[in-house]
Design goal:
Number of domains: 1
Oligomer: single chain
CATH superfamily: Winged helix-like DNA-binding domain superfamily/Winged helix DNA-binding domain
Order of helices and strands: HHHHEEH
Helix content: 55-70%
Radius of gyration: 20 Å
Mean pLDDT: 92
């Protein structure tokens, strides 16, 4: 499997969980956030947020940096961009297939 495809698989697996999507949304809305900040606005513990952030980090969707005793997380858009590009390519391929089926269905074949 190519590295690009593996990265896309990691992104899709990370985003399959609704709570992880909420965590990612929270980080994106703030620019940077700690696990404590995120846990304060979501109905899960700080420890659960840390686990979700670890999955998002492994998928490359967030970057962590230490500032004193805190760890700040920020969204990394590159993996999302690559995944969106793959989805767009897939949609374009299906559009071509469906257009071909439509042409066949509407043709005057006996």
């Amino acid at each position: 499997m190519s590295d690009r495809r593996s990265g896309i698989d990691d992104v899709l697996a990370a985003l399959a969980d609704p709570m992880r999507r909420r965590v990612l949304d929270s980080v994106a809305a703030r620019g940077e956030a700690t696990a404590t900040m995120i846990a304060a606005e979501l109905p899960v513990s700080r420890q659960a947020i840390v686990k979700h952030l670890a999955v998002l980090d492994r998928a490359g969707l967030v970057a962590a940096r230490r500032q004193g005793r805190e760890v700040l997380y920020a969204v990394r858009s590159e993996p999302l961009d690559a995944t969106a590009h793959w989805i767009n390519d897939l949609a374009a391929a299906w559009d071509l297939r469906l257009a071909a089926i439509k042409r066949l269905a509407e043709s005057d074949l006996p």
